[in-house]
Amino acid sequence: MTGLAVPLSSRSYRRDFSENYIMLLGQGDGIYRPEILSAAIRQESLVLVNGQAHQLRPATLGKGMVLKNCFQELCEILSESSKRNRFPLVRLRAAMAAFESIWVQYEEVYISEPSHRRNQHSVNQHAKWWWEL
Hints:
3 strands; single chain; disordered C terminus; mainly alpha; three-stranded mixed β-sheet
């Protein structure tokens, strides 16, 4: 994101994650894990962490929907631009800045929410995502 001068949001909240999540996500800014985006796109409210099911709050799912929409907008801009072989840098920069900002907001609540509510649910057969961390 440096070439477009898109400011990166701090990911200092990752210091509060478990050691396994820190290893997975890293400590640096500008590191994106595809699993985070995939979760936002799928909009599944039930997440399995270490064999325990956790129901995500509607607010977390809402942030995921915003991230999904930002990603779709970014893809549309890139698709339209590549057809014309012209990239609207101002529009692209704004879309990337919005994506970066909501990514950080979603990642923080998506990872920390189940960690803080570990004993809320037992393993559920209908859960579709399994994390072994």
